[in-house]
């Protein structure tokens, strides 16, 4: 009778384990993906551990698949070509509770608290994410759920949940957020980047405590000099708000704050004036625009907007807004549900 050696048994067991991991991958996730699973069925149990395993310098795409579950951690990604794929925004969540004041108390003398408190922090180019939620549950002060510092980024079917400063387009150009849900109340889409937010929903939420009843969607940081390319294009999307919340379109963070609203549904919660200044005085250098004849809804009338914002007949397109976008971004390789899902993956409030 022939018997198998211990080595043969080990090789067979490893082959079986590998086959089980590959079989567990959903459609449209490559077999080479690094698997993260809370239950131990993947290679790692945290997203940070998976990120740390990527050898540097990294010059080719690495896909990290995060199985369903709630992962409480702060994640720092300092690598190019990282792609994160979840099991769906309702199933896979990366969450943390950390605000700028708490971070500052933990890091006395350090700077950048309003960014460093972020739940998922990306410093790298060619980043992608699909089918996942990034959340910061802190309510006391600035508490980003996500920030991106890098060029050529694509994010689809991702939910960003926070209150103040939810999503930071820190710096960089060619940042494309598609089919996303972004919730916050104070300046919850902000930064110095050049970004398109397309086919998305901007939800003004009422935080559990301390709400003023006013929510401000964008706060662009263009200052006319070192960040003069910074601009937010809010394209073919919709605004929604919790009961009792005013959904102000934005405040100018930089002296030449720049943003365009085009093809956006604006409910009655958008005040007639549309915008508020960041501080006292008239922000005369602001470059906030609304494209005539494209925005809809009871809050879209521009007749009573503040005098320091503008209207225009000029429409923006992907190619005009991102003239230097590489083919990597113009035709991004997609993973997860985004491969088969079209527009409307998130329920849209009014369209």
From TrEMBL:
<keyword id="KW-0063">Aspartyl esterase</keyword>
<keyword id="KW-0732">Signal</keyword>
<keyword id="KW-0378">Hydrolase</keyword>
<dbReference type="InterPro" id="IPR011050">
    <property type="entry name" value="Pectin_lyase_fold/virulence"/>
</dbReference>
<dbReference type="GO" id="GO:0042545">
    <property type="term" value="P:cell wall modification"/>
</dbReference>
<comment type="similarity">
    <text>Belongs to the pectinesterase family.</text>
</comment>
<comment type="pathway">
    <text>Glycan metabolism; pectin degradation; 2-dehydro-3-deoxy-D-gluconate from pectin: step 1/5.</text>
</comment>
<protein>
    <recommendedName>
        <fullName>pectinesterase</fullName>
        <ecNumber>3.1.1.11</ecNumber>
    </recommendedName>
</protein>
<feature type="domain" description="Pectinesterase catalytic">
    <location>
        <begin position="34"/>
        <end position="315"/>
    </location>
</feature>
<dbReference type="GO" id="GO:0045490">
    <property type="term" value="P:pectin catabolic process"/>
</dbReference>
<dbReference type="InterPro" id="IPR012334">
    <property type="entry name" value="Pectin_lyas_fold"/>
</dbReference>
<dbReference type="InterPro" id="IPR000070">
    <property type="entry name" value="Pectinesterase_cat"/>
</dbReference>
<feature type="signal peptide">
    <location>
        <begin position="1"/>
        <end position="24"/>
    </location>
</feature>
<dbReference type="GO" id="GO:0030599">
    <property type="term" value="F:pectinesterase activity"/>
</dbReference>
<dbReference type="Pfam" id="PF01095">
    <property type="entry name" value="Pectinesterase"/>
</dbReference>
């Amino acid at each position: 009778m022939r018997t198998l050696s211990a080595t043969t048994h080990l090789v067979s067991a490893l082959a079986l384990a590998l086959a089980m991991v590959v079989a567990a991958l959903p459609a449209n996730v490559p077999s080479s993906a690094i698997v993260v699973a809370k239950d131990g069925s993947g290679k790692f149990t945290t997203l940070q551990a998976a990120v740390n395993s990527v050898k540097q310098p990294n010059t080719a795409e690495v896909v990290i698949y995060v199985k369903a579950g709630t992962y409480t951690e702060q994640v720092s990604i300092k690598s190019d070509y990282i792609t994160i794929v979840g099991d769906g925004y309702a199933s896979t969540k990366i969450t943390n509770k950390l605000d700028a004041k708490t971070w500052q108390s933990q890091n006395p003398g350090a700077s950048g608290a309003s960014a460093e408190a972020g739940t998922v922090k990306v410093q790298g180019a060619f980043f992608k994410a699909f089918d996942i939620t990034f959340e910061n549950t802190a309510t006391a002060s600035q508490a980003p759920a996500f920030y991106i510092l890098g060029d050529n980024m694509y994010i689809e079917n991702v939910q960003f949940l926070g209150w103040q400063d939810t999503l930071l387009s820190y710096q960089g150009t060619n940042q494309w957020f598609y089919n996303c849900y972004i919730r916050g109340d104070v300046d919850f889409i902000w930064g110095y980047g050049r970004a398109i937010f397309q086919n998305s929903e901007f939800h003004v939420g009422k935080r559990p405590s301390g709400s003023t009843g006013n929510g401000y969607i964008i706060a662009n940081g263009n200052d006319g000099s070192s960040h003069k390319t910074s601009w937010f294009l809010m394209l073919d999307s919709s605004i929604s708000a919790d009961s009792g919340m005013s959904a102000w379109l934005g405040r100018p963070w930089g002296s030449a704050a720049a943003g365009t609203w085009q093809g956006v549904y604006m409910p009655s919660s958008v005040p007639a004036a549309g915008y508020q200044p960041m501080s006292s005085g008239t922000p005369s250098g602001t470059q906030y625009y609304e494209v005539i004849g494209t925005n809809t809804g009871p809050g879209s009338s521009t007749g009573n907007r503040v005098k320091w914002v503008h209207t225009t007949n000029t429409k923006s397109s992907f190619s005009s807004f991102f003239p230097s976008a590489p083919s990597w971004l113009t035709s991004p390789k997609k993973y997860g549900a985004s491969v088969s899902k079209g527009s409307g993956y998130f329920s849209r409030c009014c369209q």
